[in-house]
Amino acid sequence: MINRRNLIKSTTITAAALFSGCRRFTNQQRAPSGLSAAFEGQFRFGTSIKNNTLQSNDTNLLTLIAREFNAITANNAMKWEGLQPKLNEFNWQIADKFVDFGQQNNMQITGHVLVWHKQIPNYVFLKDDKIISKKLLLQRMEQHISNVMERYKKVTEWDVVNEAIVGGKWLESKWYKIIGPDYVKRAFQFARNANPSATLIYNDYGITNPKKQQAILGLLSKLNNSGVRVDGVGMQSHFSLEKNFPSTDMIEQTIETFARQGYQVFITELDVDVLPRAWKYVRQPPLQQLHINEISIREAKYLDPYPNGLPEKVSKELADRYASIFNVFSRQSDNISRVTVWGTLDTESWKHDWPILGRTNYPLLFDNKGNPKQAYFSVLGEGNN
Ligand code: GLA
After folding, report:
1. Distance between CA 37 and CA 68 in Å, rounded?
2. In this structure, which residue's CA is closest to atom 3 in ligand 1?
3. Which of 68, 157, 252, 269 is catalytic?
4. Ligand 1 centre and the CA of 75: distance in Å?
5. pLDDT recorded at residue 14
6. How many helices (H) and strands (E) does the chain have?
7. 350 CB less than 6 Å from ligand 1?
8. Position 8 confidence tier, pLDDT thresholds 50, 70, 90
9. 290 close to 210: Cβ distance less than 8 angstroms
10. Which is the closest atom of ligand 1 to the Cα of 159?
11. Active site includes 256?
12. For 44-61, what is each residue's pLDDT tens digit?
């Protein structure tokens, strides 16, 4: 592992390297640095990038990302609503920037996500305001997948399907209702045809849950038996500080279970929520989220306890939790291809607004100013900083 001083010394990327135009660093000039250097030889260390970071060319944040990480995922730029907002009208602008940034910094780029039930426009499932046939929906799926993967041939790792299973059963999404359970298989077939050598991933949350794990294993082995190969399993890994859920034992057992079946494991969206559970305030379906201001002041104080900063004690607990999670990842590094945190700065996290809106959360490794938090140093194995 590298220490903090080396970390600063090994920073070789400058804002000039971020986008073409000015001075450009070639791949050979990029020395590994930051988190990715610390885990070199174990797994790639990635982060996700938001649209506004790319659109505004936020050089401070992009410089930090280039320094610390060697893999990137787009938060939203490559989702269906981002890429094909209207039927057959593709919008490549932000995804192009994302891919350019990754290539210029010699990063592994993950395409996220081809088929999901969220962040997808309604038109996909409709024609003349009526639900379309299975045949037409499969055609649209194939066109989307082949267009996107064709344009981004150099993106060699794809989250093909996201969140098909809930609990131990199929999620009754529009994909499932119109096409039936075969939709996952078809998506992987289309993706394989579009880029035969790409690494294709099934991605989901809460996979440490035994029922869900079994259902996903069943689904993937069925695909495998029918000749459709899935290369990897993406564990989203939206973890909590509360009750240390899921336990490190559960995390490790899950990684081992998928690895034993021959799947590469990808930790795709890691964050650690420091706030109390608030699921009971979400009504669904249809999804209705309350804002923290709509909750009684007494409850709100409990639910949103750190609006002005994370107390030292909790910051230490978070650091310890991250350390124990990364101990598992290091032990399991033969089975893990990549660990990606879902955002770089705390300000970027979706966890301020999920499951209720308007709280202040601290789930990531850098504070709002881009300073490494205690959790960052504990990930590096430097627990006492
Ligand atoms: C899921 C998706 C991600 C992201 C998060 C919330 O985990 O896979 O793309 O939308 O939800 O931010």
Report:
1. 8
2. 75
3. 269
4. 7
5. 36
6. 14, 15
7. yes
8. very low
9. no
10. 8
11. no
12. 999 999 999 999 999 999
**Alpha-carbon distances, residue 222 vs 189, 264, 266 (angstroms):** 13, 17, 21
- C-alpha of residue 234 to centroid of ligand 1, in Å: 12
Check if 348 has its Cβ closer than 6 Å to any atom of ligand 1. no
Segments making up each domain of the chain, as ranges = 35-276+332-349
State how far the Cα of 38 lies from the Cα of 45, in Å rounded to an integer.
9
The whole-angstrom separation of Cα 307 and Cα 358 is 10
- The ligand 1 atom at the shortest distance from the C-alpha of residue 205 is 7
- Domain formed by 35-276+332-349, architecture: Alpha-Beta Barrel (3.20)
Apex CA 126: angle with CA 124 and CA 128, to 5°? Answer: 135
Alpha helices per DSSP H over the chain: 4-9, 34-38, 51-55, 59-68, 80-83, 93-104, 134-151, 174-179, 182-194, 210-225, 248-260, 297-303, 312-331, 374-379
CA 372 to chain centre: 20
Q: Which tens digit of pLDDT belongs to each residue from 332-367?
A: 999 999 999 999 999 999 999 999 999 999 999 999
Q: Could you tell me if residue 88 is left (phi over 0), alpha (psi between -120 and 50 degrees) or otherwise beta?
A: left
In this prediction, residue 282 carries a pLDDT of 82
Going from the Cα of 8 to the center of ligand 1, the distance in angstroms, rounded, reads 31
Q: Is 68 a catalytic residue?
A: no
In this structure, the strands spanning 165-166 and 169-170 are antiparallel
The catalytic position among 68, 163, 252, 317 is 163
Residue 86 amino acid letter: K
**Which DSSP category does 348 fall into?**
G
Mean pLDDT across the chain? 92
In this structure, what token pair is assigned to residue 51? 């649209």
What separation in Å is there between the alpha carbon of 128 and the centre of ligand 1? 30
Cα dihedral across residues 344, 347, 353, 359: positive or negative: positive
Q: Is the CB of 205 under 6 A from ligand 1?
A: yes
| Minimum-distance ligand 1 atom for the alpha carbon of 342 | 12
